[in-house]
Amino acid sequence: MRDTIIGNVMPILEIHLDANETVMAVSGELAWMTPSIQMTTSATSSGGIFGAFKRLASGASLFTTDYTAAGAPGLVAFSSKAPGHIIPLDLHGTNGYMVHRHGFICSTPGVELGVGFQKTLGAGIFGGEGFIMQRLSGSGRAWIEVGGELIAYNLAAGQNLRVHPGHVGAFSDTVNFEMTTVRGISNVLFGGDGLFLASLTGPGQIWLQSFTMPNFAHALIPYLPAK
């Protein structure tokens, strides 16, 4: 198996499978594939019933699809959902990653997708759906997407960074993650940055994203036709 990431603005992930190799994605991610790829969609193929409910709780689809190169090499491609970057993450059974709720694209068998963090931040934030981080665990390789420009930091032990929640793309599970409130009544009322910040404390790697869908939707509101 080998992967190729094509493009800069709206990248495509192509995965070249040897005969009988499989890659798993949540339903709705497929862009294109060669004829040798066989699709198998199920709610229980990855992690059983418990795995299906963990995916649903994380904001992902209840169903997953296995793409298998049936008897001959094949290619399957997945497209990013917004301008940004696609990055691979390797899991070895002892490490894991937290990823923003729409970040997971696909993975090799052995990677598990579940909910890692969930908090209600009010109806005006993230469309009223609250803040959710997906957790990747197990063994294998996963591919995720982050929006806009990708900014990576390697935090030393005890080093802290406070980030607007929407700009958190992913981080290794060695990073301590907490939600903190913005201090000061004037900051809360007039700061325009919301009531909450994500507090990330090392050690570990973090990936931040410059583009967020809620901010993009908010920027479009003045240009939408009035009813």
Description:
Residues 48-53, 122-128 and 184-193 have low confidence and may be disordered. The protein has a single domain, classed as Double-stranded beta-helix. It has helices spanning 48-57, 185-190, 213-220, and strands spanning 2-6, 12-17, 22-26, 30-33, 37-42, 64-69, 74-79, 84-92, 97-100, 104-107, 111-119, 131-147, 150-155, 160-163, 168-172, 176-181, 196-201, 204-209. The termini are far apart. It is mainly beta and 227 residues long. The protein is globular. The strands form 3 sheets. Strands 3, 5, 6, 8, 9, 10, 11, 12, 13, 15 and 18 form an 11-stranded antiparallel beta sheet that branches. Strands 1-2-7-4 form a 4-stranded antiparallel beta sheet, with no helix packed on it. Strands 14-17-16 form a 3-stranded antiparallel beta sheet, with no helix packed on it.
Q: Write out the CATH superfamily name.
A: Mitochondrial biogenesis AIM24
Query: Any idea what the shape is?
Result: globular
Level-1 CATH class name: Alpha Beta
Radius of gyration using CA atoms only = 19 Å
Specify the number of helices.
3
As a percent range, the share of helical residues equals 10-25%
Q: What's the CATH topology label? A: Double-stranded beta-helix
CATH architecture: 4-Layer Sandwich
Category from helices, strands and their pairing: mainly beta
Q: Segments where pLDDT lies below 50 for 5+ residues?
A: 48-53, 122-128, 184-193
